[in-house]
Amino acid sequence: MASHRRLKICCSITALLFVILSVVVLILYFTILKPKQPEAIAYPVQLTKIELIPFPQLKLNITLLLTVQINNRNYGSFEYKATTAHVNYRGRLLLRLRSQAVRFRSRKHNVSSFVEIMGDKLAFSPQFWMDLGVGSFNFTSLTTLKGRVKVFKILKMSATARSICDVTLSVRSNSVNSTCYSKFKL
């Protein structure tokens, strides 16, 4: 009789601890561990170099510095493998920029890369001379990062971060204006 009572007490305490532990895990998931959208802040593109050589062979080399700040508000990390960014001019692929694999831990992380645009490819575009006369060029860049989100090395999910930027390069004023849109999908 006493052992039956002890068994009931032990099972009740175990069930109560299981319920309390389940409630604590649910509260932690919905308050702290729930995946949040990271903030991607694309800083204005900086023009670092323009080199125009009209003679004996036309050369136009433009070097830009692209910087993106990722504010990972999650308690996990985002890890992606090597990726490729594409830059288009008037619908034509102008360059591909390859990046190394990166792991974003929680909190803020800056990613910077230099892009060198070879103007020789630009010169063959029919609109190039019109844009050169106006003094500005319009580019579109597209970057897609596919990777995994890890929380405490236990919870692992696939994720995709995508960024599209419209860039206007003014040759006369030696400046760049850019507008970027970012999206993160779990």
How would you describe this protein?
There is one protein chain. With 186 residues, the protein is α+β, with helices and mostly antiparallel strands. The chain has two domains: 1-34; 38-185, Sandwich (Immunoglobulin-like). The chain contains three helices and eleven strands; from the N terminus they run αββββββββααβββ. The strands form two sheets. Strands 4, 5, 6, 7, 9, 10 and 11 form a seven-stranded antiparallel sheet that branches. Strands 1, 2, 3 and 8 form a four-stranded antiparallel sheet that branches. Strand 2 (46-53) and strand 3 (59-72) form a beta hairpin. The protein is rod-shaped. The model has no long low-confidence stretch (mean pLDDT 78). InterPro entries: NDR1-like (IPR044839).
Key features of this structure:
NDR1-like, 4-stranded antiparallel sheet, 3 helices, Late embryogenesis abundant protein LEA-2 subgroup domain-containing protein, transmembrane, alpha+beta, 186 residues, membrane, transmembrane helix, Immunoglobulin-like
What ranges have pLDDT less than 50 throughout 5 or more consecutive residues?
none
What is the terminal separation in angstroms?
A: 55 Å
Number of domains in the coordinates? 2
Individual helix count: 3
**Second CATH tier, the architecture of the largest domain:** Sandwich
Mean pLDDT: 78
Number of strands: 11
Q: What form results from the Cα inertia axes?
A: rod-shaped
- Biggest sheet, in brief? 7 strands, antiparallel
CATH topology group of the largest domain: Immunoglobulin-like
What class would the helix/strand composition place it in? alpha+beta
Helix share bin: 10-25%
